[in-house]
Design goal:
The chain has a single domain, classed as Orthogonal Bundle (Arp2/3 complex 21 kDa subunit ARPC3), CATH 1.10.1760. It is 76% helix and 0% strand. The chain is an all-alpha fold. The two termini are 24 Å apart. α4 packs antiparallel against α5.
Length: 166
């Protein structure tokens, strides 16, 4: 029974850690984290599910809920719901593609770009081709490049210390 509680506590701790990291990074970098031209550096956490498991997907989803409550255009149900769902799907997809980490990061970036860019035009009154292109490019930078670098560094450090990867 104690082992079950310990495992549940570890899962909750991992989810909470990634939710907090995502929300704090987004809010700390508020000027570049929102609107049409954005570079949400907190999205670099999305592919860390490759290393730390599917709990990361839940964490970045919940962190996005919190971050989007403080968007400059005010809390928007579309942004809170679909932005969080985009993170959940992207991070879980990266986890499923963990044996091909680069592909997982690129696919995750495109998922975020298409979903977020696909609704952001409604909130910002900017043409959809602009929002989709802008968010996809910024996601490729944050998730596809920076996130992939983080995955590589963390993987290398874990392997050097003989720790098992997911």
């Amino acid at each position: 029974m104690t082992r079950i509680f310990k495992l549940e506590a570890m899962v909750i701790a991992k989810i909470s850690t990634f939710a907090a990291l995502y929300a704090v990074l987004t809010l700390a970098l508020h000027p570049i984290s929102y609107l049409v031209i954005q570079l949400r550096l907190s999205d670099a956490l999305i592919p860390l599910s490759i290393v730390y498991g599917p709990e990361v997907a839940i964490g970045v989803c919940l962190g996005c809920v919190v971050a989007n409550l403080f968007a400059p255009y005010g809390p928007n149900i579309l942004d809170i719901t679909l932005g969080s769902l985009a993170n959940l799907i992207a991070s879980y997809t990266a986890f499923r593609l963990r044996r091909r980490a680069t592909l997982g990061c690129i696919v995750a970036a495109v998922i975020v770009g298409l979903i977020v860019g696909g609704y952001l035009w409604i909130i910002t009154n900017v043409p959809p081709y602009v929002t989709i292109t802008s968010v996809t490019i910024s996601s490729l930078i944050a998730i596809g490049a920076i996130g992939r670098i983080l995955v590589g560094i963390i993987t290398k450090v874990l392997e050097e210390h003989g720790l098992r990867l997911r």
